[in-house]
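Appendix B. Raw example, untouched.
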Amino acid sequence: MSYLTHLKRSQIASDTRWIVKLDKTNGKVREVKQIFDPADYRKFKNPRTLYNKEQLIKILEDDKKK
């Protein structure tokens, strides 16, 4: 089962957030990390953009088309 399929099927809390790392050479998704405490993560010096479940699914579907 792919991570995209897992996201679509599973019940995930609405406050769960993820960050996405992209490959610099081709712009494809290289890594996805779940952030367990978004409020604490936002306090970091250079936090990445946080995505919710729907946004992450859209990013992964677009990446799959590339």
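End of appendix B.
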